């Protein structure tokens, strides 16, 4: 039972690290999958296989190396020199993501709860510091709380859509996009999310006591991400094409279920922002410890303080400026990762 509980904790942490604000809002699913029509079910299946395969490989390599951070892993995958540069870039990317997530938390407080933007930042920073000082086990515990709630909401949305007259849209809707665009989308989506997830998957993999926990946790976590993608795609497809006009498509669906489910879903969105924020901040702090040798708490305070300052630029501005660059580099990372595992298998 103890091993089973560890498998579930690994799976939930994997899901919580990948699933952020863009996923919870439905915007990511809409842009990478639903907009491409009925073929999205197949591209989601491909993305799920990539999440399972690469996720397991990342954690197993970290376990074998007992890697202190993702830099140790990248040096093995890409060589000492290239791996060091890739890790340096990833460090910049992680800091960018932490600022985006923090800005997203502030936006939730401002636009949805009608509180000040700054109060959202400060509440998130204080909670993050309290959790991050307790290490990877505390991060896994937070994900073990947030992810089941998120899964429950997915079930509710699927049941609601099942009774809709347009519930079969996911098998019928068409797209004018080329096959190249459609089949590139799952690679771009998984590349970006897996490259970022290594900040948590690597230290988690190194912290486990046996390989089978990571294999089953990666399998369950990757499959869970796939099911969440499919359920959101199923619900969004039933509302196409009108749903595409909303900035938070899933929020639009939740408004039809009443004020209480809408408020609860808002908390889920915040929870998913929070889990991504603490995961990336933790990975960044582990990386900086190797390079600076500063005390962990000092590094955390520096990271959180700088994130606070830069997050005042705003959620939308940071998102539009940083994500396209990160996505492109992440595709290169994924290709090299697949190539490395292919060579190892030969």
Automatic annotation (TrEMBL):
Keywords: Membrane, Transmembrane, Transmembrane helix
InterPro entries given in the database record: YkvI-like
Official protein name in the record: Transporter
Keyword Transmembrane listed: yes
Lineage, highest ranks first: Bacteria, Bacillati, Bacillota, Bacilli, Bacillales
Native source organism of the sequence: Paenibacillus whitsoniae
PANTHER family tied to this protein: CONSERVED MEMBRANE PROTEIN, MEMBRANE PROTEIN
TM spans (from-to): 7-24, 44-65, 85-109, 115-132, 144-162, 182-202, 214-236, 263-286, 298-315, 321-339
């Amino acid at each position: 039972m103890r091993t089973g509980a560890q498998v579930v904790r690994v799976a939930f942490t994997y899901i919580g690290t990948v699933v952020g604000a863009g996923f919870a809002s439905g915007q990511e699913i809409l842009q990478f999958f639903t907009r491409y029509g009925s073929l999205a079910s197949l591209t989601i299946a491909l993305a799920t296989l990539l999440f399972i395969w690469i996720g397991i490989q990342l954690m197993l390599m970290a376990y074998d190396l007992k890697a202190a951070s993702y830099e140790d892993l990248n040096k093995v995958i890409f060589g000492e020199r290239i791996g060091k540069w890739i890790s340096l870039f990833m460090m910049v990317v992680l800091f960018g993501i932490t600022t985006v997530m923090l800005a997203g938390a502030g936006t939730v407080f401002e636009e949805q709860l009608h509180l000040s933007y700054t109060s959202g930042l400060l509440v998130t920073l204080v909670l993050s510091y309290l959790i991050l000082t307790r290490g990877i086990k505390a991060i896994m515990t937070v994900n073990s709380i947030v992810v089941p709630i998120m899964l429950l909401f997915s079930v509710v949305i699927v049941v609601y859509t099942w009774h809709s007259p347009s519930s079969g849209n996911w098998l019928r809707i068409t797209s004018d996009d080329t096959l190249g665009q459609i089949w590139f989308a799952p690679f771009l989506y998984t590349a970006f999310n897996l490259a970022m997830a290594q900040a948590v998957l690597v230290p988690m993999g190194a912290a486990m006591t046996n390989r089978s926990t990571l294999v089953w946790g990666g399998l369950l976590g990757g499959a869970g991400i796939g099911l969440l993608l499919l359920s959101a795609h199923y619900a969004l497809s039933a509302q196409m094409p009108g749903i595409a006009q909303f900035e938070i498509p899933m929020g639009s669906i939740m408004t039809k279920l009443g004020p209480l489910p809408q408020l609860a879903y808002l908390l889920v969105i915040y929870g998913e922002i929070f889990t991504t924020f603490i995961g990336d901040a933790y990975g960044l702090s582990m990386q900086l410890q190797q390079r600076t040798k500063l005390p962990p708490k000092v590094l955390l305070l520096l990271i959180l303080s700088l994130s606070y300052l830069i997050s005042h630029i705003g959620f939308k501005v940071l998102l539009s400026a940083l994500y396209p660059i990160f996505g492109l580099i992440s595709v290169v990372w994924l290709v090299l990762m697949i190539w490395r595992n292919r060579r190892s298998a030969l």
